[in-house]
Amino acid sequence: ARRPAVPQAGQPPGTVGATDARDSRDAPGVDLCAAAALAERGRAHVWDVDLRGEAATAFALRIDGRVVAYVNRCVHVAAEMDWNPGEFLDRAGQTIICSLHGATYDPARGRCIGGPCGGGALEAIDVREESGRVRWYPRLDIRPVVVRPEAHPHP
Prior knowledge:
Layout: E1 30-34, E2 45-51, E3 54-63, E4 66-71, E5 96-97, E6 104-105, E7 112-114, E8 127-130, E9 133-136, E10 142-144
Antiparallel strand pairs: 1-9, 2-3, 2-10, 3-4, 5-6, 6-7, 8-9
C-alpha cells in the first residue's frame, strides 16, 4: 500500500528535524536491506512508513558512496515521486526527479534544484550502514508502520 510527505527546508540527510521529541540515535534501528543491494546511483530501496499518522513511503539511495534516505513525497505536490517502483533518478543518475511535474532535487542533500518545488527540500530520514546492512533510525514523526491484527469475532 503505497501512498503519498515534506522536510525542514534545507535539512541535510541523516539529521533529525526540529520537531522531533528525541534524537533517533536513542531508538533501535530498523533493518532495511543489505548495503550491497544499493548500487551507486541505482534503484532505491522503498519501504512503508507512518508519517505523522499517515501512510507514506520512504526511499534509500546510494549517492557518492553514501546512503541517503528521504520521505517519498514531492515538495511541490504531496505525491510519490518514483517513475517506476524504486526509480527516482534521471537517466544520467544526477538528480532525483518527480514523475508528476518534473521537480528536481540534489540527491546528496535533497534540496530542490529545479522545477516547481520552489527551493524546498525533501524530508531526510536517518539511515546508516552498519555491518553490511542499511539501518533506519525512526523518530517520533516518521515511524515504522504498525500492523494491527484484525479483530476476529468469536462464533
